[in-house]
Amino acid sequence: MTSDSQRRVLLAKPRGYCAGVDRAVETVEIALEKYGAPIYVRKQIVHNVHVVKTLEERGAIFVDETEEVPEGAIVVFSAHGVAPAVHDEARGLGLRTIDATCPLVTKVHKEAVRFARDDYDILLIGHEGHEEVIGTTGEAPDHIHLVDGPDDVANVQVRDPDKVAWLSQTTLSVDETIATVEKLRERFPNLVDPPSDDICYATQNRQTAVKEIAARAQLVIVVGSTNSSNSVRLVEVAKEHGAARAYLVDYPEHIEESWLEGVTTVGVTSGASVPEELVQGVLEWLAARGFAEVEEVESVPESMRFALPHELRKDLRTLPVV
Description:
Elements: E1 8-13, H1 19-35, E2 39-42, H2 49-58, E3 60-63, E4 74-77, H3 84-92, E5 96-99, H4 103-117, E6 121-125, H5 131-137, E7 144-147, E8 164-168, H6 174-187, H7 201-214, E9 219-223, H8 229-240, E10 245-249, E11 265-270, H9 276-287, E12 293-298, H10 310-316
Parallel strand pairs: 1-11, 1-12, 2-3, 2-4, 4-5, 6-7, 6-8, 9-10, 9-11
Helix pairs in contact: 4-5, 7-8
């Protein structure tokens, strides 16, 4: 049995909320304050069960499809983005929309439109069924082909192998995306890159941070939800870079005591859609079991902020608080 003096926690920094998630959650919170409940949100505003539950308690109503929103009501589009057809549907239903799409996702949408306009086949690296992939594909459905990792490269069929470009979902593993692009370039030597990196700064920074703590910890706990792509990637990256074990948990009570057997160093981080209060709950749980020493390991400074959606900024200048 290890003594308490030997036990410690390596806390990754940066962790938790990225600028896009912060903006999206704040958008719903402010909309509830300014317009009053209910505020409808198409899909989960971000992929975190705690955030969704908290906003529901304040009066947000989450729906799967735009047609579920009553005529004339306010609907917020999630941080993951939507296809143009969804905007058209909302207008047809007479809805007031607030678009909380992360600006970095919007950037990928615009790249898809530009490549499609120039008649490229677009190879979108991402996971089938993810909301971000669905939204991006909707910008140019006749030009986009999904590539789900390196093993899927052999299945790609294009019209002209000399006129191919690639884009990616913003929340992927950096290392796996690089491997996928390398395989694509073997098949398509003239493959065109996006104007700038599609994997968002926050995804990259959190993966860099977890690599550093995983190399020094026997166990890594990632706070995040199972439908959060970037959180799931953090678990994978931790295992690939030195951690004997890594687990994804939503709440401290999901941690199993048995995980701590023989462990002296625990790494802790959180996905980009996770509020800091959940991380602090995990630290308190660990402290109660002898892991009270916490060393914060900062890998990359982070200070990005995004302005609120323009629809909300306009009304904030004139509307009183409800």
